[in-house]
């Protein structure tokens, strides 16, 4: 081992400078009970890992199971640690790195969608342009009055970000996003 791979005073190795952070989407099946989400999130915050997106909802009502979808970034070593440590949490039934599974199936990444509500203030030409662009992005008007619109848009994260950037100069007021919901292609379950 060279000096960059030697453990330091902490329990974690220093990563090589040549390793770059990758974006991965993890799907975690857990018991739907109080405190489970806090334990999962505590694993991230306690080790200094960042979460780019987090969604959670009960998905199997009869079995009382919830699915947590986490988008995070890290080197392969950090992502392996996250996966391993999540599997050790008692109410966790299964952890699937959807990004790895998608690549194994020959896809670039898992299917990911997000919902956003975007409030835009505007009058005159800016108002007309906001409506025209919303139509081009297939965003729906869910609330409107004479001085603002609230659009609902669903799609890939990149589409949502592009829509928000385009609305910025037209009077963007506020954005509310759900976070990523993700699933892999194919007939098998998570």
Automatic annotation (TrEMBL):
Q: Boundaries of each ACT domain copy?
A: 25-100
Gene Ontology CC: cytosol
Record PROSITE patterns: ACT
Please list every transmembrane segment annotated in the UniProt record, as residue ranges.
none
GO BP of this protein: isoleucine biosynthetic process; L-valine biosynthetic process
Biological or metabolic pathway of the protein: Amino-acid biosynthesis; L-isoleucine biosynthesis; L-isoleucine from 2-oxobutanoate: step 1/4; Amino-acid biosynthesis; L-valine biosynthesis; L-valine from pyruvate: step 1/4
Q: Which InterPro entries match?
A: Acetalactate_synth_ssu, Acetolactate_synth/TF_NikR_C, Acetolactate_synth_ssu_C, ACT-like_dom_sf, ACT_dom, AHAS_ACT, AHAS_small-like_ACT
**Example GO molecular function:** acetolactate synthase activity
Keywords attached to this entry: Amino-acid biosynthesis, Branched-chain amino acid biosynthesis, Transferase
Q: How is the quaternary structure described?
A: Dimer of large and small chains.
Function noted in UniProt: Catalyzes the conversion of 2 pyruvate molecules into acetolactate in the first common step of the biosynthetic pathway of the branched-amino acids such as leucine, isoleucine, and valine.
The UniProt similarity line reads: Belongs to the acetolactate synthase small subunit family.
The name under which this protein is listed is Acetolactate synthase small subunit
């Amino acid at each position: 081992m060279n000096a960059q791979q030697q453990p330091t005073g902490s329990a974690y190795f220093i990563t090589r400078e040549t390793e770059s952070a990758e974006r991965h989407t993890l799907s975690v099946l857990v018991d739907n009970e109080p405190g489970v989400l806090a334990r999962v999130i505590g694993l991230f915050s306690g080790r200094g890992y960042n979460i780019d997106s987090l969604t959670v909802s009960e998905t199997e009502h009869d079995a009382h199971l919830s699915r947590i979808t986490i988008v995070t970034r890290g080197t392969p070593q950090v992502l392996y640690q996250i996966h391993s440590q999540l599997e050790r949490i008692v109410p966790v039934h299964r952890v699937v790195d959807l990004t790895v599974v998608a690549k194994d199936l020959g896809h670039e990444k898992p299917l990911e969608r997000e919902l956003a509500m975007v409030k835009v203030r505007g009058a005159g030409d800016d108002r007309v342009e906001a409506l025209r662009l919303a139509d081009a992005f297939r965003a729906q008007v869910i609330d409107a009055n004479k001085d603002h619109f609230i659009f609902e848009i669903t799609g890939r994260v990149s589409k949502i970000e592009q829509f928000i950037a385009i609305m910025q100069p037209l009077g963007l007021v506020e954005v509310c996003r759900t976070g990523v919901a993700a699933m892999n292609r194919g007939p098998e379950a998570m």
